[in-house]
Amino acid sequence: MNFVTSGLILSLTMTLITARPDAAILGRPLLTVRTYQVTAVPSRDWNAVVRSATEILDRAGIDVDWVHCSPNASGLEALPARCTMPYRGNEVSLRIVRRPASAVRGNMPLGDSMVDASTHSGILATIYLDHVGRLARQARVSATTVMARAIAHELGHLLLGTSTHSAYGLMRPTWTPDELARNRPIDWTIPAEEGQKMQQALARRAESDLAAARTPALGD
């Protein structure tokens, strides 16, 4: 397998919770995201991040079911059973980690997604808290806003199955503090054509699960 990563870049040029359970009934594709907080995020902030990221993907026609697989995120002593089960076709993982600036040269990615170039699909996205916080401070906006947008961006790469970026909208490669401060809706929305591609890709993942379930086991 030929894996490539796609990184959302923080420009250093300075003047530089859960989704609706009736998704299947509505015919909307459902993405399940297992979250792993290697670095803990305060519960109130995390709830705001999940809510905002869900809204972004909702506008792109995708419902999200968040399965929190870290004790500090779930708020429960026992983790959800889904965390220990095999991955379904519509499931991906999201890690929240720290990556000190000293470990990176040049531009600093807010996150990245691991995509298999041969199958045009991905299952793992990572968000770097340090970089998110730095960009938020430079733009003087909420870190939860930046994190939610970065999460939606990286999940978009997993669904599109590509490391390439668009020229405008949420899936563009570089975000500047000025753009965040201006907060133009067009900059933080997934373009309709990309949203449709994500929906189609997610539908294909679900269909592959159904096909596998219908295939008799060897010897049956």
Average pLDDT taken over every residue: 83
Radius of gyration: 17 Å
Please write the CATH class name.
Alpha Beta
Number of continuous helical runs: 7
What amount of the residues lies in strands? Answer: 15-25%
CATH architecture: 3-Layer(aba) Sandwich
Going by helix content, strand content and strand pairing, the class is alpha/beta
**Strand line-up of the largest beta sheet:** 3-2-4-6-5-1-7
Low-confidence sequence ranges: 11-25
Stated plainly, the CATH topology is called: Collagenase (Catalytic Domain)
Largest sheet composition: 7 strands, mixed
Shape: globular
Overview of this protein structure:
Helix content is 38%, strand content 22%. The protein has helices spanning 23-26, 43-59, 71-74, 129-139, 143-160, 177-182, 192-214; strands at residues 3-10, 30-37, 63-68, 91-97, 108-116, 121-128, 174-175. The chain has a seven-stranded mixed beta sheet with strand order 3-2-4-6-5-1-7. Helix 2 crosses helix 5 (143-160) and helix 4 packs across helix 5. The protein has 220 residues and is α/β, with parallel strands linked by helices.
